[in-house]
């Protein structure tokens, strides 16, 4: 992993406001890494435990969480988003309503 690219991804994720979400592709574009959505996922997966970065605000382009539904990570991410006022309808977040328009 390139530390400079990681830092750019972390910077974008740190800007996502409470109660909003961004997609992996959106974070990649805003970090100057278009077409690197998977890299965003890889970088976030490697965050140290207890990191203050709001990783939970990054979801996929369909408005869904990327973790398997029956996983602990899925439950944690969903709980964190719901605590911020994000509403799930049929396991999806309305990007039209909740997507951060920071671009």
Automatic annotation (TrEMBL):
<dbReference type="InterPro" id="IPR036217">
    <property type="entry name" value="MethylDNA_cys_MeTrfase_DNAb"/>
</dbReference>
<feature type="domain" description="Methylated-DNA-[protein]-cysteine S-methyltransferase DNA binding">
    <location>
        <begin position="7"/>
        <end position="86"/>
    </location>
</feature>
<dbReference type="InterPro" id="IPR014048">
    <property type="entry name" value="MethylDNA_cys_MeTrfase_DNA-bd"/>
</dbReference>
<keyword id="KW-0227">DNA damage</keyword>
<protein>
    <submittedName>
        <fullName>MGMT family protein</fullName>
    </submittedName>
</protein>
<dbReference type="InterPro" id="IPR052520">
    <property type="entry name" value="ATL_DNA_repair"/>
</dbReference>
<dbReference type="Pfam" id="PF01035">
    <property type="entry name" value="DNA_binding_1"/>
</dbReference>
<dbReference type="InterPro" id="IPR036388">
    <property type="entry name" value="WH-like_DNA-bd_sf"/>
</dbReference>
<dbReference type="GO" id="GO:0003824">
    <property type="term" value="F:catalytic activity"/>
</dbReference>
<dbReference type="GO" id="GO:0006281">
    <property type="term" value="P:DNA repair"/>
</dbReference>
